[in-house]
Amino acid sequence: MNKESRIKSQDVEKSEEEIFEVAQEAARKAGEVLLPYFQATGLEREIKDDKSFVTKADLESEAIIIKTIKSKFPDHAILAEESGEVKTASPYQWIIDPLDGTANFLNGIPIFGVSIGVYKNGEPFAAAVCNPVTRELFSVARGRGAFFNGKTVTVSNQEAAKGLVTFGLSKDVADREHFTRVFVGLEKVFNKRRHLGATALEMAYIARGGIEATVSFGSKRWDHAAGAVLILEAGGKITDFSGKPWKLGETHFIASNGVSHAALLKVVSSAK
Length: 272
Hints:
With 272 residues, the chain is an alpha+beta fold. The chain has helices at residues 3-39, 56-72, 102-106, 173-185, 199-208, 221-233, 261-270; strands spanning 45-47, 53-55, 77-80, 84-86, 92-100, 113-120, 123-131, 136-141, 145-148, 151-153, 164-169, 192-194, 213-217, 237-239, 252-256. It has an eight-stranded mixed beta sheet, sandwiched between helices. A five-stranded mixed beta sheet has the order 12-11-13-15-14, sandwiched between helices. Strands 1-2 form a two-stranded antiparallel sheet.
């Protein structure tokens, strides 16, 4: 490698390291925005066309995230839940959920967070997920590992019979009927079943080794983008309902520690 190529390579590495740092910074700042609203009462809410909630907290959280990203990477593409998509020629796209678990947030349940995923040419690259109430920060950079409050984490090695599985639901009737069949079918397969209502955090918990699996019966890209990066880097597995490797944009999938995946996939696919 000549000097010019070496310098260029070093510049790329520096830039990519900065992406990892900025993702964490943006998640922390957004968490600081959300926390006072969570501690307050009577937060006004609006209902969007898809029947989901949006609040002043969502909007302010998203604004600080985008401001933080653009201060360092003004040419990067962004997809955010509230403000939509801004496409650019950059290979990097930031996918933002400024408040994952809004219903929990509005009802005083501390299971919510900020979710920021970064993809390079459509492939998982970096992410940060923050729960400001519990002071949990999950972060990841491709090839460097997944981290929980700065410490390296990996998925668990628990089999389904000793594990916990969660679920994410869309409002589609067919999805809910499929979920009902799966929930019943898993009664004797998984030890515990839960619906926590915060996809990004649930996926982060898988990466940390606290949950064994989650099943998405329809979710948005901003719901799962960050969590997918975390799980894959932490040694987990994500597939669609037919067992094919997951790709960004697929809304129905199984994410797991890998050990429990086959048992879960069998129930999900047979319950269609």
